[in-house]
Amino acid sequence: MDFQEINDYLIPIIVIAGLIVGYVIRATPALQPAREYIPLIVCILGAALGAVIQEVTVESIIMGAVSGLASTGLNQVFRKALNLKEGASK
Predict the structure, then answer these.
(1) Which H helix or E strand runs over 69?
(2) What is the pTM of this model?
(3) Rounded CA separation 85/54 (Å)
(4) At what angle do helices 58-81 and 38-53 cross, to 10 degrees?
């Protein structure tokens, strides 16, 4: 599997939306109890956005969910690369 095959299953706007929603949940004090559910939240959000952006098919829902989960992984890669602590909001 090469990068082009992986890129066929990711929808960049959903990855960006997942990053934004995850950051808002992490940074908002009132939403702190939802922090442990961020991957689930962005997965469901991605699936819903995938169905809205493309036509409602199983493939578009799965592509949206994978894109949402990719935003969680991308966030973790950035946090590890920049050595950010779990509680830090920078």
Answers:
(1) helix 58-81
(2) 0.80
(3) 37
(4) 140
The angle subtended at Cα 23 by Cα 20 and Cα 29, nearest 5°, is 135
Report yes or no: 46 and 71 within 8 Å, Cβ to Cβ. Answer: yes
Residue showing tokens 């960049």:
12
Low-confidence residues in the chain, pLDDT < 70 = 1-9, 86-90
Q: What is the pLDDT of residue 89?
A: 52
User: Which amino acid would we find at residue 88?
Assistant: A
Instruction: Give the position of tokens 């950010």.
Output: 84
| 68 burial via Cβ count (<10 Å: 0-12, 13-18, 19+) | buried
**Secondary structure (3-state) at 86:** coil
Q: Which two tokens stand for residue 74?
A: 């991308």
Q: Domains of the chain: which residue ranges? A: 3-81
